[in-house]
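Researcher: Good morning. I'm working through a list of sequences from a screen, and I'd like to move beyond sequence-only analysis. For each chain I'm collecting a predicted structure so we can compare shapes side by side. This is the next one on the list. No need for commentary yet; just the structure.
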Amino acid sequence: MQNQAQSSSIVTNVTDPSIQIVECKTKAERRQLIDFQWEIYKGDQYWVPPLISEREAFYDKTKNPFFEHSDVALFLAKRSGKVVGTIAAIHNKNHCKHFNDKTGFFGSFETIDDFQVAKALLDTARNWLKERGLDAMRGPATFSANEEYGLLIEGFDSEPQVMMTYNPRYYLPLLDQYGLKKVMDLYAWWASTERCKEVIMGGRFERVAQMAMKRNKFTIRKADMSKFDEEVEKIKKIYNKAWLQNWGFVPMTEHEIDHLGKNLKQIVDADMVFIAEKDGEPIGVSISLPNVNRPLRKAHPDPKTPELWTLLKYLWYRRTMVNSLRLIILGVLPEYRMAGIDAAMIYKTLQVTIEKGLIGGECSWILETNDAMNRVIQYAEPTLYKKYRMCEIAIDANRDAA
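Model: Good morning. Structure tokens for this chain:
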């Protein structure tokens, strides 16, 4: 009876009477939110279905450390009893504290191609944020910059790399019509193995990396997975300091970093993790992940299929189907920047890409305004092949879009 009572949270201030907004209060309703993705991406050759258990844990307040400091409300949009859209309203309290602002977020945004449905969802999220004293709504972010972040706006003709977002083309026009405006674009760069070979054979990049290590007396080594917890502690010393001044970055808590490390341990390849050290102390880190999206998509998780069977297929396909990597973290302590450490770690990553016989690698995401990092990355002569967008709207802006 308790679940029945919890599930009756219905939002009534929706302009289209055919649309009902229901707040997810039960595990069953959260499962509806997860399962709805299969309706939106049915037949899409590039979408990578998530593991149900992973998404359930992500939305579980007892398992995701994000909920230790922030609040989230999940909503379903229904028409004639059928789910037609989903959204999360996110009060990231650590963001507000760090930036001393009143910005809220929306994420987990999925909808049919219907503006009235999108509007009902976005209005609901804005109202929820307004009730908490926030004055702007930004997104999509599920739930923060440390997870899925931004809306894909360019580069729909290839599969997403691990932990990168993917969405239908019509989402951007819906958000535009609603009044959400660009606040920042995020870049994804691609370097094919052929390009990596050309760069390395040219020698210029290697000379830059070698000269930097010699002149500034630092070393670069691979991570030691037999000392995983110790390596995570070293990365902690770098992570929050290295990105502290970046737009949108909020320092992670100790628990969040440990939780992320535990999750990544399942897919990380030690050959793709580099730690720069000076006098035995960590000063920089580079982490690339094998693109496990390919075998995961081939295994095709499905709400109707037992997950054990999906996992067995995934492990089988992973042996041969991982053919690229994503450079997900590249950071140097502020006092050691401009010393060539980031260039040297990129060079090491190019070498790994070649040695493992991959087709190439992605470096993402990079703020469009991060000129220094974008210049360093271009040493590898990559292609800017995908763009993602963060949008924002004032909480009290006009809501009368047609």
